[in-house]
Amino acid sequence: MLPQVSPYDVLCAGRWRTALLTTFSLSLSFFEAVPLHALRKAGAQDIGILADMTGYQASLAEAGVSDVGRTYDLVPVKVASGCFHPKIMILDGVDGLRATVSSGNLTFGGWGHNVETLDLLVPTQAPRAFADLADFLEYLALYVEEGRIIAPERPTIIGTMAEACRKASRAGGDGSTRLIHTFDGPIVTQLAAHADALGGAEAVTVVSPFFGGPDAVRTLAAALGCGRIRVAVTGKAPEFFDFAAAKALGAPADPVRSDAFSSTALLHAKIIEVTCRHGRLVLSGSANATRPALVTSDNVEASVLRMVDDRLTFGWAPTDARDPSEGEGGDPDPTGGSCLSARFDGGAIKGRLFGRAGPAGTWEARIVSGAVHATLAPVSVGPDGSFEIRPGAALPIRNLVRSTQLVLTRDASDVRGWVVFDQILGAVRERGPVAEAMIRTLAGAEEPDDLAVILSFIVANPGAFLEEDVGAPATTGAGPRSPDEGTVTVELASLRPVSSSTDELATAALLGGTTAFERLLASMRRFVREAAPSGRALPDAGDVDDAVRGEAGDSGALPRWRVDEVVKALAAFVGALPTERGDFRRHAVSLLDFILFAAERSTDPDDLKADHLRRWIGLVRGAGAAPGEPDVLDRAFVAVLAAKVLADPLQAGRAHSWLQAWCHGPIDQAWVEALMPSSTGIRERRLDGEADDEAWREAVRRTVSTRTAWMDVHEIRQALAGLGPMPVLPVALAAEAAVLRQVAAGRAKPERVVALAVRTDKPACPRCYMNLPVIARERLREHRVSLTCCDLVLLDPVLE
Question: Can you tell me the distance from the alpha carbon of 474 to that of 478, in angstroms, rounded to the nearest whole number?
């Protein structure tokens, strides 16, 4: 009996924050009714769908679609030579990373009505499959960037999920399960290589709803080098295999059946089982037994390859062939028709037409959203189908409360597509329901429930709605400071629509936010408190204490969730400021003081402090040392790093690297002495109340005495310039060291050593431009030195 699991079961089994789904066919009404509902219950806020242009176009005719472009992203993908055919779901959240690879599209049929296959991937059980999945996503992003795959843009969620999959691939476990995709070449070629590793193929069994003739199966058998071919015959399928035609081509096949596929539902599963001399392989996923899917790389396909034992058996038995004419049909036209993709960034609608010959010229434009039909100014479309519309006040954003389509018309012919609202979507990704409530309120829909959500947010985030025009509080760390103002009161009556919500959202970046939600929050601050006086400083520990302490309970302890919310709001406020400005440095220290103060009074002091100090380091690292004399942020940064070393001496090397980046080079001893933490300082006592002066000094000494990879690179460059000896490199860099010694001695050309100008996640050989293999990338990341395939030594001297 084969294990039974559905994609819906997987959605309901965890708590997710991010979800990426790919599909060929698409039903948005199904997605919003079932998967989206489950994802929201699971806590997901960043949801994206990549759909083939065929499925995207079909979704435009669906009624009842309400959330596309607002609470989830939809990106159409067009593969020039074939179709975008993978059916992948990647979920990431507090319960870890999971992925499914199936044969089912994002439709009612694909999620329950058809006979489908689904492979559930768990990092500890299939680490290599997650490495393959990361490669797949990185290839997809690269092909879009190069124009080999046409998409309106490369969604950020692809990079996010690729990074998560790459990280998950480092988990221990069995590496026999792989993800096979057509970016690596034709599937028949890859499958044959895996079969050869098991002693060669003896038989192949194919389950497929589509064939397009017997040639793909014949080619598969020839690539595998096996003479025994079996093809499954099921009760109901779009297409039955033509056994007579296969025999005429010299590739006779045997019809077989299995109880696993005895359902009266329509077959849509795709399986290739290869029996080898030393094992058995099962490939399942998106690839049909057709030439574009198996024999060429015309389609983008993805399937899971497992090496299985006798516990997984299909129980094949001989059966009768079916007449090919008895198939149900239903293979969708992969060419599709014309459609468009559009994104509204708050100031302009930018997009592109697809599938339309000669699109250049002037088109009439209109917006359709439920009962709202609004005519826009004529739009000029370029030869490649690209266009830009700046609707200004003509776009009735306040009335667009449902999913929206843009319709372009020329010569009595319409081309339409969904409009994705980037700022709204970005804000919803970050904050979910509260962002949706703010959007509707800014648009003029003053619903009581939305106002209640916004006010609850303000109560839970006392610093979130501070005036942007802040003053300059003292930040010496000597203790609490007096606030310029007492508290902020927001009256329900003050929540009135602004004059132009579109203009508010378009210019919100001027109000201090960098993330989508921060831009929205900045607009909301101005919307709620436009008449508020300027000059209000960022509150320190004492200010916020008065606002939140009374809600902590009789024990006086602040609940972790409340502190997290306040710190997050304050951190966003600080992060919105340019790092080169003095108020960034002052407010960053105020944020640190609040973290330390709140941690002492929280229900989870140690974990809270550790989590938020780590985030604080990430927030301020880009600011660097103050020019001239050290300032208060320099002092705070050194103290936080020293505290990390006090807690874990093994962190000394990392802390030293951060300090070198902070100082943009070697650390001056006088600078360190001027910033030496003191056990009498309030900030130091909050960081570590037990450390005395000697302990703090020892932590700093240990930090700056460690050797970092950047020091090796710095000394290598000095040695190559004749200004010092070559450093002794780690054993792992023996090959690199040999080349460096040859160059330093004049026995090799200086061009064999290349220093990177910028850091990159995908370093490449500067001679042949091939990406470094994984091992070389890891060596460059860890040691800042790595040998390329052309025997060049790459150096990474960049501090950031």
Answer: 9
